[in-house]
Amino acid sequence: MRRHFQYKETAVTIEADEEYLPLAEKAVLDAREEVEAYIAKDPYFKATFDPYPVRADMGEVVRHMCEAAQRADVGPMAAVAGAIGHHAVAAMTKAGCKHCLVDNGGDIVMRTNRTVTVGLYSSVRTPNYLALEVPPRRRRTAYAPRPARSDRPYPWAGRTWRPSSPRTGRSRTPARPSSAT
After folding, report:
1. Residue 28 falls within a domain, yes or no?
2. Residue 18 belongs to what domain range?
3. Where are the alpha helices (DSSP H) in 96-138?
4. Of the chain's two ends, which shows fewer C-beta atoms within 10 Å, N or C?
5. Where does the pLDDT of residue 20 fall: very low under 50, low under 70, confident under 90, or very high at 90 and above?
């Protein structure tokens, strides 16, 4: 069964047997709560475009975001959709689900016992018939089959910047707010 579930900015499509859907929805809410609590504790976590260090006080979802961001050399919020999907699929798998899939805005996490076709959509320049055929797997697998869009306005305009990108030499992260005001 497939169900759409939305809470605030998180909009997921969950595919699993009906008995596992409420479990996935609860896992999505729990993951969001953990991320929101960490952002309330340190707003820089949400703003940075640089990898954020893993700390002992982090929950599982926030730690997963930081680890993924470090591997990709991006900020942790780049991994929020995948981390939330991962948490939901892990919860369903732990409960015994053999086929579950969570699509969170194009970031797809799945554990499946059957072949799944994942469509690739990017822009008008790409044919609309491209897809990946994902074979059955016993472990969780994640896909983000869409490129970043360059036509979206940046929400951080007007903030103070600091140099940080060794590849381009350009700034990419707002400066951490100073505690001395």
Report:
1. yes
2. 2-174
3. none
4. C
5. very high
